[in-house]
Amino acid sequence: MSKRGRPAGSLGKKKREKAAALKSITNLATRLSQSSHREADFEDDDVSIASEGLAESINQSIELIHAELQKIRKEFGKAIELHKKQIKELQQENKSLKERCGTLEADLTNVKATQKEHTDQLNKQERHSRRSNVRIVGYKTTENEDCMKIAKEVFQKVGVPDCKIERAHRDGRIVRGRDRHILVKLSFFQDKVAITQNARQALAENNFFITEDLTKLDLAEKKKWRTKVNDLFQDGVRLRFYAGCWRSRGGKPYDFNAPASSLTDEA
Q: Which residue stretches, if any, does this entry annotate as coiled coil (predicted)?
């Protein structure tokens, strides 16, 4: 009697289909794996070739940059050497100019000192040439006037009628509304001293006065301190201008820059 059912070792339909599908998948996976390895090998080759090209390009660029840097360095070095040379030349020239300036400054100082000395000497000589002169200031100008006669009349008023006059004339710029000075040259210095000493009091009621004939420098020095001299006069300090400066008692030059207390005591 025969057995019923499938023979031993046989598979059912579903199992056969499943096994066939599994085999098909296995074969497909094997083929994909092989294809992937081939593509990977191909990509590795491309990357390697590309990397070699890039490295070569970078090396060439580096070489070009290095060459340019060497060129710039060489040119920069030449420029520095040129500038060093120019700076050295300028330093030497500057040193020479400083020495010349020092010499010129010393010469200028000497010239100024010499000029001042000459100016002082000329001023002294001019002062000496004017030592017997006086000026009548503010005397009314008249037509066809005789300055010699006017001078004699004025000197008679101040108590020196017998003084000898060498010459007398109007002096100075013509200014509208102002009478020019009458410049009088006396023969004797002692007559001038007597006239100037008596003039302030003798001519106090007149519209004119007598003053010394000062040089330009002496007149500037006198005017420079006039305000302070007036202030000192109000404080009881009496100063007189002669020989080129304001002087206190005893003929000592008055120091306007000294402390007020010491000046008052000295005066």
A: 55-114
